[in-house]
From TrEMBL:
GO terms for molecular function: 2 iron, 2 sulfur cluster binding; 4 iron, 4 sulfur cluster binding; formate dehydrogenase (NAD+) activity; metal ion binding; molybdopterin cofactor binding; NADH dehydrogenase activity. Residues 8-64 form the 4Fe-4S Mo/W bis-MGD-type domain. The chain holds residues 231 to 922 of 942 of the full protein. Keywords: 2Fe-2S, 4Fe-4S, Iron, Iron-sulfur, Metal-binding, Molybdenum, Oxidoreductase, Repeat. The keyword Membrane does not apply. It comes from Nocardioides cavernaquae. Its cofactor is Mo-bis(molybdopterin guanine dinucleotide); [4Fe-4S] cluster. One of its GO terms (cellular component) is membrane. This is Formate dehydrogenase subunit alpha. In the C-terminal section; belongs to the prokaryotic molybdopterin-containing oxidoreductase family. Coiled coil: none annotated.
Length: 692
């Protein structure tokens, strides 16, 4: 029991969990943080918060925190604690030695959506200017990379279209592949408020999520589609809208291009709800009714999550939703739009900051000579004109021997990436694995160098939330590690011969603003003055952009894209007759590295497997049984929970605990455009008891 007492000071900062990006006042008594109070002036949360942001900050001072750099020659050796100077010199020397032996492209880095924009920016700059290649990727690869691709192709900008406030003007809300109540609780409350006021709701999700039926909220239509059939579903809805003349022709004529080809495609009989019914498993009449409801709404707003992106056609589905919005004129004003609900606090920011191997900050392609020249002049360094390796390419290249050194900033790739045995084999084959993190996580177990990172309470910088809102993250305490995280890549780069230094993170943002048109008007001083800024913010006078594409799309005309449905190769068979899909629970966060180290662990102590009573009965499984889940790639154990939230034939689990390891069974399948893993569809067998 801690005697809290009254706070003596408070610091305004931003929650480090989900992409809602709630603002808080961290209240301290002396140097001790005693509570987090949601900030009524917070643009994203207006005084609200969820249990994670409010209570789950204890991990920052947990005894498992590693505060010293450590090195070891082999992963079977014991860790040796060293000082920062030694660790930085070791990493620089080893990375250069690998390049001397295997070539410039033999090393790379992965940035984190958990760190600040400034910290991400310095890592990608280190890779491009000091490593001399574009082998930089982000953990957004495994969540929202299809959002970046799909929205850029159709609208011209890799970001959601609306601010959160906009939902208050929606007449019909469509939630696809997301569970906001658990994943984005504060935004879910905003959404539910609008639903209680009378807005209609369509839920497209295999699972009967809380929004389908909960106190005071009930969906007008729940379309429980088969995992992997999203694109067939969105094409069927488009078929209804086009063939029944429900399109907004004036909007299409004035604002869009390539409509005719798309309309001819979706109008074909094979795209109809009736043709899609055997694929989606959803009655055609329900799909027709839901499509009419969306198209006839004054304002129709789409919100979506990883149930859209983490598929072999994730990018196609993002474009499919953009097509629906354009066809019905639901873009460019309050209450409409296409909006990704981002999982991590800084997914948007890590993508904005140039973490993709083909894009410099601001989503500019590395092959663009004019763009590269701007960066080269300011950085005083050449930039490679060809895209580098994505995360899955890094794993494959490690196994073929051409990729030998990896720097990982704040992501537990050994636990979070699919097909665990493949990831482990790849990481084990590296000559140098550097992990920068708070804890000795699963990835660090395979590392040669551990560089201690800082928690959000020690950071000074910015996060960008799902509505493109740049929020300040202010230090509540000094770095317990003795070093700011943005300093680490700067010092490694310098030790490798590329002089990279800043006195303060505000200088990093100033550099981002100079180099990135959508950030030209952003500075720490302005953020402190305005509270937050939603990019694009193009000059000092610009207060930011809550709603995008109001008069014209970023790319000029919105572009309709033909979205042909291609079934995933991951099918159920007699040997693997069930389809496993995944999601989250409210009290835990992603792989649980933080939330498992807070009192929240008492509320949910393990991942479980939800299985329909019919499927359970067929297998002799009763509630609470330990069951073995077997897929083509692996096998894991979970406790069964009988539930009819999933249709028969589909099972469901969360991925918050390393021992259960949902990714032991997930496959190598990935989105055709971005390699985002197909976490949401894995054919499995479930049997009672522990095997092997
Ligand atoms: Fe933090 Fe998300 Fe909860 Fe807000 S909704 S307090 S950002 S976890």
């Amino acid at each position: 029991v801690v005697e809290l007492g009254m706070p003596t000071r408070s610091v305004k900062t931003t929650c480090a969990y989900c992409g809602v990006g709630c603002s808080f006042k961290a209240e301290l008594r002396g140097d001790q943080l005693i509570r987090m109070v949601p900030d009524e002036d917070g643009g994203a949360n207006e005084g609200h918060a969820c249990v994670k942001g409010r209570f789950a900050f204890g991990y920052a001072t947990h005894k498992d925190r590693q505060l010293n750099p450590m090195i070891r020659e082999s992963i079977t050796d014991d860790w040796q604690v060293v000082d920062w100077e030694t660790a930085i010199a070791y990493v620089a020397r080893k990375m250069r030695a690998i390049q001397d032996k295997y070539g410039v492209g033999a090393i790379g880095g992965i940035t984190s959506s958990r760190t600040t924009n400034e910290e991400v920016y310095t890592v990608q700059k280190m890779v491009r200017a000091a490593f001399g290649n574009n082998n930089v990727d982000t953990c957004a690869r495994v969540c929202h990379s299809p959002t970046g691709y799909g929205l850029k192709q159709t609208f011209g900008e890799s970001a959601g279209t609306q601010d959160f406030r906009s939902v208050a003007k929606a007449d019909v809300i469509v939630v696809i592949g997301a569970n906001p109540t658990d994943g984005h609780p504060v935004f879910a409350s905003r959404m539910k408020r609008r639903l209680r006021e009378g807005a209609n709701l369509i839920v497209i999700d295999p699972r009967r999520i809380d929004l389908v039926r909960s106190p005071h909220v009930e969906a007008d239509y729940h379309l429980p589609l088969a995992p992997g059939s999203n694109v067939a579903m969105v094409n069927a809805m488009a078929h209804v809208i086009v063939t029944e003349g429900l399109v907004d022709q004036e909007f299409i004529d004035n604002r869009c291009e390539e409509y005719d080809e798309w309309a001819a495609f979706v109008a074909r009989p094979e795209q109809s709800p009736e043709a899609a019914e055997p694929i989606t498993g959803v009655p055609a009449a329900d799909v027709r009714a839901a499509a009419r409801l969306y198209a006839n709404a004054g304002n129709g707003a789409i919100y979506y999550g990883l149930g859209v992106t983490e598929h072999s056609q994730g990018s196609t589905m993002v474009m499919g939703m953009a097509n629906l919005a354009m066809a019905t004129g639901n873009i460019g004003r309050d209450g409409v739009g296409v909006n990704p609900l981002r999982g991590q606090n800084n997914v948007q920011g890590s993508c904005d900051m140039g973490s993709f191997p083909h894009e410099l900050p601001g989503y500019r392609h590395v092959s663009d000579d004019a763009v590269r020249e701007v960066f080269e002049n300011l950085w005083r360094s050449p930039i490679a004109p060809t895209p580098g390796l994505r995360i899955p390419n890094m794993f494959d290249s490690a196994l073929d021997g051409s990729f030998r050194g990896l720097y990982v900033q704040g992501e537990d790739i050994a636990q979070s990436d699919p097909n665990t045995s493949h990831v482990y084999a790849s990481l084990k084959s590296l000559d140098l694995l550097v992990v920068q993190d708070l804890f000795l996580n699963e990835t660090a177990a395979l590392a040669h160098v551990f560089l201690p990172g800082t928690s959000f309470l020690e950071k000074d910088g910015t996060f960008t939330n799902a509505e493109r809102r740049i929020n300040r993250v202010r230090p509540v305490m000094a770095p317990a590690t003795g070093k700011h995280e943005w300093q680490i890549p700067c010092e490694i780069a310098t030790a490798m011969g590329y002089d990279m230094s800043y006195d303060d993170p505000s200088q990093i943002m100033d550099e981002i603003a100079v180099l990135t048109p959508t950030f030209h008007g952003v500075s720490f001083e302005k953020l402190d003055r305005l509270g937050s800024i939603q990019w694009p913010c193009v000059d000092e006078a610009d207060p930011g952009t809550p709603i995008m594409h109001t008069d014209e799309f970023t790319r000029g005309k919105g572009r309709f894209m033909v979205t042909t449905f291609v079934p995933t190769t991951e099918r159920s068979t007699r040997k693997y007759p069930l389809i496993l899909t995944t999601g989250r629970i409210l009290s835990q966060y992603n792989v649980g590295a933080q939330t498992r180290r807070t009192p929240n662990v008492m509320w949910h102590a393990e991942d479980t497997l939800e299985i329909h009573p019919h499927d359970a009965e067929d297998r002799g499984i009763v509630d609470g049984d330990e069951v073995t889940i077997t897929s083509r790639t692996g096998e894991t154990l979970l406790r069964a929970v009988l539930s009819d939230r999933m249709p028969a034939g589909v099972v469901y689990t969360t991925f918050h605990y390393p021992l259960s390891g949902a990714n032991v069974v997930t496959t190598d399948n990935s989105d055709w455009a971005t390699n985002c893993p197909e976490y949401k569809v894995t054919a499995v067998q479930v049997s009672v008891g522990a095997h092997g």
